[in-house]
Amino acid sequence: MIHVSGLRKVYDTGVVALDGVDLDVREGEIFGVLGQSGAGKSTLLRCVNLLERPTSGTVAVDGQDLTALDIAGLRRARRRIGMIHQHFALLSSRTVAGNVAFPLEVAGVPRRERATRVAELLELVGLEGKASAYPAQLSGGQKQRVGIARALAARPKVLLSDEATSALDPGTTQSILALLRRLNAELGLTILLITHEMHVIKSVCDSVAIMRDGRVAEAGRLADLVAAPGSLLTREIFPLPEPAPSGSVTVTFAGQGGEPVMSSLVREFDVDVDILGGSVEDIGGVPVGRLRVRLTGKRAADALGYLRERGVILEETR
After folding, report:
1. Which of 3, 50, 157, 282 could be stapled to 60 by a disulfide with Cβ–Cβ 3.0 to 4.6 Å?
2. Which of 234, 212, 215 is nearest to 37 (CA)?
3. Do the beta carbons of residue 189 and residue 2 sit within 8 Å?
4. Which residues contact 208 (CB under 8 A, 6 or more apart)?
5. Residues of the chain with CATH 3.40.50.300
6. Is 27 in a helix, a strand, or coil?
7. How confident is the model at residue 290 (pLDDT cuts 50, 70, 90)?
8. pLDDT (tens digit, 9 = 90+) per residue, 291-306?
9. 29-52 confidence digits (pLDDT tens)
10. Which positions ≥6 away from 79 have C-beta within 8 Å?
11. C-beta neighbour count of 78 within 10 angstroms
12. How far apart are CA 283 and CA 290, in angstroms?
């Protein structure tokens, strides 16, 4: 759905914000771009809908190269791309209904059709009864729901999210992430979101790219990266003390069976399992664990073989 190739953005000041970014976002997935301030992720998002025009490279959305379009063609293409913002970007002088209706007014949609669509959208995002309220009367989470409804007004295929939860408290953040996941499932939306918060990636993303210094340092399906022992994502989610002690094993497992398998080693192989560090995290609703352990006992090698047979990933330290 989104194909970015060789994207480079150099500002007039000489700052290189993007330095040869390649990215592919599959149709219907939630793709997260993770990075700290200055990594280039916000510039990348603005280049996807050409709010920022790249210095070089191409951006294609739904098979159409946006960088090759004229102004009128780009305006039409942007109707298929919704965007939600960190600080909501609502019009304070307009009601909730007026904010949601604004892009439809710009597009010339008749008044009666606008009213019907606005009512549908407010119900979709859980704001029934708030149509006549003004932004100043809303909580942060409600404001972001208005922003999401507005972004969906023209029935886009792609939704861009610019740090949409970073201004919200943890409980509200979870409700907004749950809403995005529901919209993704019900509407078939492709969502590209940028964030500096790992819990956002863990909660809702199917795929992720990690950006550093204007480049993609790592990208792939979340489940694949988490299971890859040497991945940047794995090391960020499951930090372990380095260097690993000699004779230790780092164990990575996904699903409910990981911890019972570890505990069964003691009974079946008469080994001692010394846990040196690690944790278990919820990744997309699936418990994933990464533990550093030391096995001692005559059948320690057999116990390691038992783990491998059950799909547990092992990194041994000699």
Report:
1. 3
2. 212
3. no
4. 31, 32, 33, 34, 201, 219, 220, 222, 225, 233
5. 2-227
6. coil
7. confident
8. 899 999 999 999 999 8
9. 999 999 998 999 999 999 999 999
10. 107, 154, 156
11. 19
12. 12
CB atoms within 10 A of CB 38: 14
Please answer whether residues 52 and 43 qualify as being in contact, where contact means their C-beta atoms are separated by less than 8 angstroms: yes
How many angstroms separate the CA atoms of 200 and 195, rounded? 7
- Decide the pairing of beta strands 30-34 and 190-195: parallel
Q: Is 197 helix (H, G, I), strand (E, B) or coil?
A: coil
Of residues 72, 99, 98, 81, the one with CA closest to residue 25: 81
**Residue 261: exposure state from Cβ atoms within 10 A (0-12, 13-18, ≥19):** middle
Q: How far is CA 3 from CA 26, 58, 180, in A?
A: 9, 8, 22
When pLDDT is averaged across residues 265-294 and rounded to a whole number, the result is 86
Yes or no: domain 2-227 corresponds to CATH 3.40.50.720:
no
**238-316: CATH homologous superfamily?**
ACT domain (3.30.70.260)
